[in-house]
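Summary of Year 1 activities. Much of the first year was spent building the evaluation harness for sequence design. The harness presents a backbone, in tokenized form, and records the residue chosen at every position. We chose the following record to illustrate the format because it has been used consistently in internal testing since the harness was completed.
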């Protein structure tokens, strides 16, 4: 399970990095994306790939609840 920030260095994005990890290990690596971007476009893109999004600042209770759900 990974926690990935959406905006990475040099314009790279977390969804692209996650795709590379999934390709490299040839398994569906579960992950949660974290971002300050609250735009509908990002939410729709991540939803299409089955990647949950938590907006910054991340509340510990939100993260715990999401991780419990994902780990069931």
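For this record, the design step produced the sequence shown next.
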């Amino acid at each position: 399970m990974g926690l990935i920030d959406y905006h990475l260095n040099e314009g790279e994005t977390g969804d692209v990095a996650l795709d590379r990890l999934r390709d490299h290990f040839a398994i569906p690596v579960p992950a949660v994306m974290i971002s300050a971007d609250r735009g509908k476009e990002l939410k729709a893109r991540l939803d299409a790939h089955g990647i949950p999004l938590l907006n910054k600042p991340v509340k510990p209770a939100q993260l715990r609840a999401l991780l419990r759900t994902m780990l069931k």
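The first strand starts at residue 2 and ends at 5. Quantitative recovery figures across the full test set are reported in Table 2.
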